[in-house]
Amino acid sequence: MVKLKIAVVHNKTEHSLQITAELLEKLMAAGHTIDQTNPELVISVGGDGTLLSAFHLYSHKLDQVRFIGVHTGHLGFYTDWRDYEVDDLIELLSTKKEESVRYPLLDVRITYRNGKPAKHFLSLNESTVKRTDTTMVADIYIRDELFERFRGDGLSVSTPTGSTAYNKSIGGAVLHPRINAIQLAEIASLNNRVFRTLGSPMVIASHEWIELRMQDSAECLITIDQFQLQQEEIKSIFYRIADEKIQFASYRHTHFWRRVRDAFIGDLDE
After folding, report:
1. pTM value?
2. Are 173 and 156 in contact (CB under 8 A)?
3. What's the family (predicted)?
4. N or C, which end of the chain has less CB nearby within 10 Å?
5. Are 240 and 182 in contact (CB under 8 A)?
6. DSSP letter, residue 20
């Protein structure tokens, strides 16, 4: 019998709390150890947002932990199990040798004009940058070469798994997570006879990087997945594929394109 050290992360809805209590009781009955500090496996109970929270909670242990999502609604892009499948999940945890599937992450580094120490983040879905009051102006460098001067509401840089989130809503392409690349998409760019941008999403290879050099020091809103940062005096924001990857435990990992079809198209037999 396989015995694991397991952490459980959940949202605060009544149903998720009920499923979490059931899950914890049955995990311990099966001989697993609940360890919220040094787990081998992290189980999220809720939705994709809950799994994002679990990722950020354990992002400093990515070489040690694997993730599983239990959804208390409909299946999401990161959740392979439904709330009524707790018994099946625990049986596989206890009897089956686990394999992992690894997905790319986004490395985000923010530097400042005023000597403030740089900040570093990892993102599972995407990072966006926007001006809070007026048009954002930023020079976009691809691998240290100026590509364009952007004017508009903002920019979004996403991972392949994050390509189905905010990126898709602003016209970005959906990328399979096996593609080790990041995607840059414009948010309401200003294009006329005077100012021009490419106007199309760009897929950046893993050996390249993106740098956004801000053209003024006004306040910007930066998002890292579901977290928001109000920042001033930004000099540049640097994006690349992270060295780290997230590992999902693949006891039963749903095919990516099936997730896309179920989320945006639905059952073709209906």
Report:
1. 0.92
2. no
3. Belongs to the NAD kinase family.
4. C
5. yes
6. H
The pLDDT value recorded for residue 58 is 97
Which residue ranges in the chain fall short of pLDDT 50?
Answer: none
Annotated binding site for NAD(+), which residues?
48-49, 125-126, 151, 153, 164-169, 188
Question: What Rg value do the Cα atoms of the chain yield, rounded?
Answer: 20
Question: Which token pair is 166?
Answer: 């905010």
- 188-260-17 Cα angle (round to 5): 100
**What is the per-residue pLDDT for 74?**
67
Query: Which structure tokens are listed for 133?
Result: 């009051």
Q: What local confidence, expressed as pLDDT, does residue 192 receive?
A: 85
CB-count exposure of residue 67 (10 Å: 0-12, 13-18, 19+): buried
DSSP state of 206: T
Annotated binding residues: 48-49, 125-126, 151, 153, 164-169, 188
Contact 75, 262 (CB under 8 A): yes
Cα–Cα distance, 89 to 101 (Å, whole number)? 17
Task: Give the Å distances, CA to CA, from 36 to 24, 49, 89, 255.
Answer: 12, 19, 19, 29
List active site positions.
48
Residue-level pLDDT at 181: 95
